[in-house]
Target: MMPL family transporter
Amino acid sequence: MAVLLHRLGHSAYRHRKLVLGIWLFVLAALITCVGVFGGKLDDRFSVPGTESQRALDSLSETLPEAAGASAQIVFTAPEGHRITESPYTAVIARTVAETERAPQVSAVVDPSASGAVSADRTTAIVQVQYRVQTAEVTTSSVDAIKSAAHAAERDGLRTSVGGSVFNSKGVHIGPSEIIGVAVALLVLVVTFGSLLAAGMALLPALIGVAAGLSGLLALAPAVSISSTAVTLALMLGLAVGIDYVLFILSRHRQQLARGTDPKESVALAVGTAGSAVVFAGATVIIALAALSVIGIPFLTTMGLGAAGAVLVAVLAAITLVPAVAGFAGTRLAPKPGSRAARRAAEAEGAADAEETTGRATLGTRWTKWVIAKPLLTVLAVTGILVTLMLPAADLRLALPDNGSAPHASTQRTAYDTISAKFGPGFNGPLLVLAETNDRTTATSSQVGAQVAAKLRTLKNVKAVLPPEVTSDPAQSVVTVLPDSGPDSVRTDRLVRDIRSAASDLRATSGASIAVTGTTAVNIDVSNRLSDSLLPFVAIVVGLSLLLLMMVFRSLVIPVKAAVGFLLSVGASLGLVVAVFQWGWLADVLGVPHSGPVVSFLPIILIGVLFGLAMDYEVFLVSGMREEWAHTGRARQSVVDGARHSVRVVTAAALIMFTVFAGFFPLDDSLIKPIAFALAVGVAIDAFAVRMTLVPAVLALAGRGAWWLPAWLDRLLPDLDVEGSSLQKVVPADSAEPEPVGAGGVRGNSGE
Model:
């Protein structure tokens, strides 16, 4: 692989105008496709084959308004008045008439007909039903309802609008994301000591992100793509794109500082650091693509979309970087006497130079401190991470609703008012579809009444509405209002109780029942994701053991990396539970609601953090392995190997953290916790695990850290991530005397 990438770097450098032109042409073509053919994003969460989804699909044919999107207009009378007073009932009737004229609305139910008036007669709800799904509801339709509700406020009523039409808005580029990119640019400037180099690093990353995102959006007319999938692809593409370019470009500049010809330097950088980039990117792609085996369409799209963004980032790093570097030539070389030039000289001089000058890099000082008492370090770091993991034992999963929306939003006001005046279950009704073999309306109504009577006897049921017959005479629908909210454990238990009562109902009424509705579908999605969590972890951990065993020819390193990965994931989930579920520091961090964690967050976190953990593991440990192969001194190789890679990995982790953290301020109940989890996950894995725990464990293991049984060594393929095979292709007159490892260190063939 290293030789192939070395040749690719040479070719991209020579044909830099063509390479850049191809990228810009592809980007322009994709943007044009999005503008001409771009379809709507689909934010439906469904699990094909589940009871709730089958019933919902049936209702979409026989009772579309029950399966379609819904909205609620909540009216509250002024203090000291009742909503049933004649002036206010007239205002509500006028609002109902205006709402009926809104686009896409199929039915509007007046509270006088539905009985949706609070017990204290101060609040009433107008129910609005659509024949289309939430993703198909236009902004103009929602605005028309808001306008009708707002008009009622002129007559003294307080109004708010909620319902399923208010869903995750997904992609939103605002000041916080721009600040994140600006901070990333600042980190690049500090790392490179050059504004030109920082800009050259950011340009290929941004082109890659734009191409990846445009490609994903261009598929929207043909594939169901959620706004969350697009935002996740944007976050990951931006974070790994900048990181991968950083790894290659920093290696290139280090070689330029030592006098290497620019063309040969960029080829060597692509062949060495680029090999590690390809490996790290491949692990992220595999982990994200593995989300498709869970069998949930929206999660499959999310994983494949993010994997595609990472793939484009890798391609941009190994093709655009050498092309752009070709335009800069020797101008990317650090100026003589600059900090960057001194760092390159120190890296070239290695330990001898350190002893002569008396200066030690930050990476060297940190690693020496960590391994001074390695057992104490291991126990301290492990103890801290295990402590952070403890809240994860209380992890509850659910999909967010309007109760997670910002406090100032109209949907949150409507949700809180309904919960206070009607009970939390009114925000998450359950639909029970009853079907018989007798296709007469009278029989369906009778069966529906029997089902409703049985449902009233179950625990946690606040009310059961009269059955409604669909266009299919064999069907009736019973609406159940739980006594608990849609994300409550009690509501989940009620769904299970209703399904457990199905056999009794079939015996007494001859009807088969199915629980459905938005709340039931969300519960089924969360349960499927929860059941898939442990198998997915097993797949990811097994994959990490195999890949790292092939890369480092060791047993200790893969096991250590897998355990460290689990500690990082556990600690990140623990912090997510503490903040988003328990509400710790919620006000300080601007978290609007404490409750269950987004159901697909753990799997997304595991998939993404796995790839990033392997990324940092390769860049850090490859340098240590090369020093071990060169000197045979186990403990010193940990120090010398870290000297060259800690700075770059630190910069990479800071960039990832700021990019992910830039999405945290978004008022989106799906994106906010994911951004938080990824940001803290990267920080924990990079600084606590890779830079602290890893050196301490390797120092403890000594020579045993690099041992692999001979028979296993022969069986495993050699991925040559470190690029040692390049010594056979580097020209003899090159200024680079030795092959160079992915971590930016001197090395040899590994004898």
User: Anything to note?
Assistant: Confidence is low (pLDDT under 50) at residues 349-358, 732-751.
